[in-house]
Amino acid sequence: MADTIQILTVEEEGIGTRCDRFLAGKLPDLSRSRIQELIAEDAVLIDGKPVKSSRKMMEGETVEIRIPDPEVLEIRPEAIPLDILYEDNDLLIVNKPKGMTVHPAPGHPDGTLVNAVLYHCGESLSGINGVLRPGIVHRIDKDTTGALIICKNDAAHRKIAEQLQVHSVTRIYHGIVCGVVRNDTGTIEGNIGRDPKDRKKMAVVKTGGKEAVTHYRVLRRFRNYTFCEFTLETGRTHQIRVHMTSIGHPLLGDAVYGPQKCPFKLEGQTLHASVTGFIHPSTGLYCEYTAPLPDYFEQLLKTLK
Fold it and tell me: Considering the entire predicted model, what is its pTM?
């Protein structure tokens, strides 16, 4: 199959607009992140020459964008049970269990949420994020549990992605951190980027990185730990884990950012995505869904009490 070629001409309203933003407005079926990937692959030409995402558009320019046809799906559906919080023709809200990776990675094509969703939904999933991540509009870490939005079509994916981009999606987490947090509430602001000392980790960085804002509220204090609620303004990689570590309170069980030894038998950090809320892509109404705390979390709270 041949790639799809789109030819666009820059008119007055597009003058001075970033290339990626201009194309996102003209090609609503593609997410801005997907457009940026195409630009990086030199699949976008202006007057026959490759460009950068930040390049400003000028009147009368001709933009050619080559959109590869979808790859043949090689990930096999698996009959993995799903804890479904809500489902309709546009969306699937699932309560992801601990230890499950959201989407496949090279060498690990099985046992992921995508495998389970493919079995449940069949071909009814958005394809915006490519063959390895059908329907996935955002993700949570392997050892983080809780509510996750799956999009069943490209229109729904695009509208949810737009809300995520402007930080209008409600995202409330619950977690247990090491140490006793002194203040009842607080806000942590600090750009998050790759840790200059360990590129496999994220860190609060002084220069570069992406803006990140986390609000926290103490729900219960124990002798050496604190049960907290976190509300995200942004959704950066490992945001809560990195921000809480930056103020001396890493998440209990987090061997990457916290103590290597844990007095409890845990599989990674005690972090749960409790609430997700957004404007429904078809009805236009605000919807909110809650994932109950997993059993291990409830039992741990009883133990600490």
Answer: 0.76
